[in-house]
Amino acid sequence: MATEQTKYKGEILTFFDLLNSQKIEIPIIQRDYAQGRLAEKKIRLNFLSALLNSIKSDEQIMLDFIYGSSTNEAFQPLDGQQRLTTLFLLHWYAATKDSELDEEVKNILLKFTYETRISSREFCNALIRNKVVLNKDSSPREKIIDSSWFFLSWKNDPTIDAMLRTLEDIHDMFFEVENLWQKLIAKDDNLIRFYYVNLEHIGLTDDLYIKMNARGKLLTPFENFKASFEKLIRDEKWDTNSDFSLTFANKIDGVWTDLFWKYFRKNNSIDNAFIRFISTIIMIRKSIDRKEKLEDRATLLSKLHDDPNIVAVKMFNESSFEYLVECLDLLQIKLAEIKNVQILFPLFRHQPKNDFFNEVLIEDNVSYTQKVLLYAQIEYFRRVNIFDDTMYVEWMRVVRNIVSQGDIEKNGKRTDIVRSPQTFDGIIYLISELAQGCSNIYQYLSNSPNIKSTSAKEQIEEEKLKANLIIDKPSRKEIIHSLEDTDLLRGKISFIFYCLDFNGIISNFNDEQFLQIRDAFINNLGVENNLNNNLRRALLTISFEENFEFYNYWWSSWNVIDGEKRKLINSYREIEYIINSEEYRGYFKTLLFKLIDKQLVDIINDFIPPSNFPNWKTRLVKESQLLDTMSLSNYIAIPQDKSCCYLLKSPRPRDITGCIKIE
């Protein structure tokens, strides 16, 4: 005959069922309420999101096991405290919001308590006994802390602090849910449930249980995703391998895990790296497949970029599943090779600390651009069977040129082109098209492929032009690359083509001038420390469209003298703005041609001012000490009559004191 212990299989209960049947007392051996900590936001929001989805969709959710034992007529959870505390806060919130917190409900909720933590116990009691009015735009935390019954010392209790933080998130997520309280306690639905196991019924002591591996531990986002994903794959019959060793379920726990453990382990865990990789893959597939509207895609891309843990199985279809498997298999075979290939040309702001896999899967604050570059690497190795170092580097260079472009402002501020989910979406789609020719990108571009993407259109046209020049005469490649690699141009050399008056007809290309302009540019503008006072003085001698006023690219009023403020180029990146400005780039074109035969100092010394050239400007050119020692900024002010200028002591001086007048 079976014993009572062997018959016992536990029960399936809701939180309200358990609290109705007995007191819940958090024992002294339990840690603080960790789920509400600031650092646990992702775990907390994932759990609350799962509860919210269950309530909104009227679909049951099982929260796994709650283990414990009964002591002095109270159930003391040994595993499940975190979930029980969050459920307690959700039930209090629902009863308060829906005006259901009557005496009967209060008496039931008061049965949730702490064994020895007096402040935590008293806070829970006070929270239930006192009235709190919840409004959509007000903070529950602030209302509670500002209440007369709240002791300021409670703010130092980590459990109370964590509870208040969780209530904020509950308020943000659940306020709009109608009849929340009734949905939580409805007997017919029992939406949110868990397995309740009383250890006394199965003959386990507390000491023995504590040594066990806790089943009730909250799963990591990756573990949750993996379990749901494997179910989806089975249900949809996506994995048709008859050999179990080749199935997704086997490899995700076998060879792929070994791979990630070898290369992407951090704090003895690979879960974050896995979830980041999967999230990045689905971002890529959403941008390529384009099943949703751009606005919806952008919203999803932004959320996934900010928090990879929100990736969900519903975001996948069979195609994206197959792509994920293909990428994981690719890494298993070629990751060591990919990581060993060196990219020796500069990647400017996007240079990884190690490589792009580490950057995206391990490092903090990964950028959209780094994900694009990772995708470009994956596509090359996915499409090319026999690796060619030259072709690979040329492919990555073209991608580098595209993603390195940005919007440059007059003040030198420069924002990257891939800085939003919308631009990420567009560039990924563009790279997916270009990847068809990644095995020989210059040959592919020289054939003028029909690119559907409208992203970075101007740069793509330049890449086609450069490809044609290289295919026509391979010796041009080194010159083009050396210009692309300068920090000022960053892959975009249209200014150089402007200097050459190049109209796109290859037969008209002047190779001699190209080499001369390249050398003049790199020697005088190639690096940041090329911006000096000799360059400023030389530019003052340059006339473009009969004006000697390169500084007009920037303007502001100086009311002190009723004049105009100008800049003699304050930052290196301002040069990028000028050379890409149709109105002012001619100054630098004229200067570069002079620099083919002269040095900056020769241009300055040889300059003979025309008769209408202001004396103050001649002095700035010829008297080096004015800019070298007397000027405290790179700003000047010019009165309306242009009879003189002032060397300004700062960008925004409030008075004339300290500003030097030059006549």
Helices and strands in order, then pairings?
Elements: H1 4-7, E1 11-13, H2 15-21, E2 23-26, H3 41-57, E3 61-71, E4 74-79, H4 81-97, H5 103-109, E5 112-114, H6 118-129, H7 140-145, H8 158-174, H9 180-185, E6 192-198, H10 206-211, H11 221-236, H12 248-252, H13 255-263, H14 271-289, H15 294-306, H16 318-340, H17 356-361, H18 368-383, H19 389-403, E7 406-408, E8 414-416, H20 421-434, H21 441-446, H22 457-472, H23 476-484, H24 494-499, H25 511-525, H26 533-540, E9 556-558, E10 563-567, H27 572-579, H28 585-595, H29 600-606, H30 615-622, H31 624-630, E11 635-639, E12 645-647, E13 660-662
Parallel strand pairs: 2-4, 2-5, 3-6
Antiparallel strand pairs: 1-6, 3-4, 7-8, 9-10, 10-11, 11-12, 12-13
Helix pairs in contact: 3-8, 4-8, 11-14, 14-15, 14-20, 16-18, 18-19, 18-20, 23-25, 26-29, 26-30
Protein name: DUF262 domain-containing protein
Pfam families: GmrSD_N (PF03235)
Domain GmrSD restriction endonucleases N-terminal: 17-229
Total E-strand runs:
13
Helix content percent band: 40-55%
Question: Biggest sheet: strands side by side, in what order?
Answer: 1-6-3-4-2-5
Tally of individual helices: 31
Overall mean pLDDT? 90
Poorly predicted regions = 1-6, 202-218
Q: Roughly how many Å apart are the termini?
A: 114 Å
Pfam family, one: GmrSD_N
Domain GmrSD restriction endonucleases N-terminal: 17-229
Protein name: DUF262 domain-containing protein
InterPro entries: GmrSD_N (IPR004919)
How does this model look, in words?
By secondary structure, the protein is of the alpha+beta class. It folds into four domains: 4-218, no CATH class; 220-340, no CATH class; 351-526, no CATH class; 531-662, no CATH class. 51% of the residues lie in helices and 9% in strands. It is built from 31 helices and 13 strands. Strands 1-6-3-4-2-5 form a six-stranded mixed β-sheet. The protein has a five-stranded antiparallel β-sheet with strand order 9-10-11-12-13. Strand 7 and strand 8 form a beta hairpin. Mean pLDDT is 90; it is low at 1-6 and 202-218. This is DUF262 domain-containing protein. Pfam families: GmrSD_N. It comes from Flavobacterium hydrophilum.
